[in-house]
């Protein structure tokens, strides 16, 4: 124990003397460059892919956000539960109980109902495809049913959801 104490004391003294050590401007520049490179590597790291499953947009959501009028409603597979509502200037998708709003990309291709093929949001982008000529849902309803596909992408442009089903467009 008596031998251990002087060694610890000597180590502490050497550590303290190193604190006051002056480094050259070149060495400081090298250390700063290493620190900047480490921060850039950390910021460039892409997190793991998290898949998203849009939830049905229900009547209370439609009423609360006034989602009536000319629009297209996308439902996956054979489901009639709307997962995406697109309009001329915006689109909506419900994720984790929150209705997310997307802005239309005015330079993207125009789809039926004055909607667009691309919408951008804070955390995701939404790409839409409509195939075929469509068929009236019901005589005199003013709504046309198409085959449609929805692609939801994260901010790194990775697809986190794809759904193919129907797109009902009209008032």
Write the layout of secondary structure elements.
Layout: H1 4-19, H2 25-44, H3 59-64, E1 71-76, E2 84-86, E3 90-95, E4 98-104, E5 110-111, E6 115-116, E7 118-120, E8 124-136, E9 144-154, E10 159-170
Antiparallel strand pairs: 1-2, 1-10, 2-3, 3-4, 4-7, 5-6, 7-8, 8-9, 9-10
Keywords: Signal
Signal peptide: 1-18
Protein name: Lipoprotein
How would you characterize this protein structure?
The protein has 171 residues and is α+β, with helices and mostly antiparallel strands. The protein has a domain at 59-170. The protein is 25% helix and 38% strand. The protein has an eight-stranded antiparallel β-barrel with strand order 1-2-3-4-7-8-9-10. The protein has a two-stranded antiparallel ribbon with strand order 5-6. β2 (84-86) and β3 form a beta hairpin. The longest helix has 20 residues, at 25-44.
Features:
171 residues; alpha+beta; eight-stranded antiparallel beta barrel; 10 strands; Lipoprotein; signal
Q: Spans of 5+ residues with little confidence (pLDDT < 50)?
A: 1-18
**Reading side by side through the largest sheet, how are the strands ordered?**
1-2-3-4-7-8-9-10
Let me know the average pLDDT. 86
Work out the helicity level: 10-25%
Number of helices: 3
Beta strand %: 35-45%
Distance between the termini: 87 Å
Order of helices and strands: HHHEEEEEEEEEE
* Helix and strand composition category: alpha+beta
Radius of gyration: 28 Å
The count of DSSP E runs of length 2 or more, i.e. the number of strands, is 10
Keywords: Signal
Signal peptide: 1-18
Organism: Alteraurantiacibacter lauratis
Protein name: Lipoprotein
């Amino acid at each position: 124990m008596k031998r251990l104490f002087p060694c610890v004391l000597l180590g502490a003294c050497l550590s303290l003397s190193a604190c006051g050590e002056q480094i050259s401007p070149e060495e400081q520049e090298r250390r700063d460059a290493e620190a900047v490179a480490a921060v850039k590597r950390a910021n460039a790291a892409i997190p793991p892919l998290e898949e998203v499953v849009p939830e049905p947009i229900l009547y209370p959501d439609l009423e609360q956000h006034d989602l009536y009028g000319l629009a297209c409603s996308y439902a996956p597979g054979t489901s009639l539960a709307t997962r995406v509502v697109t309009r001329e200037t915006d689109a909506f998708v419900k994720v984790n109980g929150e209705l997310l709003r997307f802005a239309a990309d005015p330079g993207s291709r125009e789809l039926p109902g004055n909607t667009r093929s691309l919408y951008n949001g804070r955390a995701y982008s939404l790409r839409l495809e409509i195939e075929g000529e469509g068929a009236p849902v019901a005589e005199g309803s003013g709504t046309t049913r198409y085959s449609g596909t929805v692609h939801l992408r994260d901010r790194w442009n990775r697809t986190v959801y794809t759904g193919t089903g129907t797109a009902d467009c009209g008032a």
